[in-house]
Structure formats: C-alpha cells, structure tokens
Amino acid sequence: MAHQHESLQLGKPASVPASPEEAVLDRVPNPHPDTDYVARFTCPEFTSICPVTGQPDFGIIVIDYVPGAWLVESKSLKLFMFSFRNHGAFHEDCTVYIGKRLSALLEPRWMRVGGYWFPRGGIPIDVFWQTGAPPAGLFLPDQGVPPYRPRG
C-alpha cells in the first residue's frame, strides 16, 4: 500500500484494477489528527456482479469515518470502488470487505459502511458494518438513504 505522496496514484494515469484485491488504496496524512470529525464518501452508483447469476447488482455505498493519523486518498478510493464492477460477490461480502479493507489501511478512530442495495428478486438487501461505538459527542448525520427504493 502506498503511503508517500510520491507514490500516490493521484495526478497520474491509472487504470481500473481487475479486482478489489488487486486495487491499491492510498492514504495521506490527516491535517487534523487531534480533532474528531466525520469524513463521508458516498458511491451512489456502486455496481458488482452476482456470483451465482452473473447479473449486475446496484447499490449505494456510504462510508463514514473518524480519521486518526490517515485519510483515504479519494482517487484511489474511486478506483477501488470501480474495481467491484466485474467482481462476483454477494452484497454482504462487498459491504464488509470495503469496511475491513479501509479500516486496515486507515486505522480510523471509528468507521461505518452502509450498503444500500437495490432489490434482487423483489427484496432489497441492506448491509451495515462498523468498527464499534463512535466517539462521544460526535456529530453523526443520518446516511440519508431510504431503506426501500422503489422504481420511479
């Protein structure tokens, strides 16, 4: 995993990784490591592949975290998230893998990932993962995704 500004993917041509396991996530120093605050990334058009049918699955992924010493670099995060497009995995696996991978890289004070998946077979499957309780007194907004998203 890259940790120095010289090795970041930012500002350089980069291709989409073949799989989430091959994706490189970059981190950069947090300019405010002494302050608890929430950083949020929302992927409103997340796509993966059903490992059984091969059909595309669509969801909204919301990542909230309280940084410690590190921030995730956004270009590397975009490439990581895009690498799921041809990856066969269940909703639960995608959501939890994203959380575990980011948490291992960043060592945040707190992190949660909400996977809000569009219906498959008429049933939406939403998956939630977090590292533990958020820091006391933290402003933590709702993730803003309704629990059921009908067509139209």
Automatic annotation (TrEMBL):
Chloroplast found in the keyword field: no
Keywords recorded for this protein, A-Z: Cytoplasm, NADP, Oxidoreductase, Queuosine biosynthesis
Record-listed E.C. numbers: 1.7.1.13
Residue ranges crossing the lipid bilayer per the database entry: none
Active site, renumbered: 50, 57
Role description: Catalyzes the NADPH-dependent reduction of 7-cyano-7-deazaguanine (preQ0) to 7-aminomethyl-7-deazaguanine (preQ1).
Catalysed conversion reaction: 7-aminomethyl-7-carbaguanine + 2 NADP(+) = 7-cyano-7-carbaguanine + 2 NADPH + 3 H(+)
Cellular localization per UniProt: Cytoplasm
Residues that, per the record, bind substrate: 72-74, 91-92
Name by which UniProt lists this protein: NADPH-dependent 7-cyano-7-deazaguanine reductase
Pathway: tRNA modification; tRNA-queuosine biosynthesis
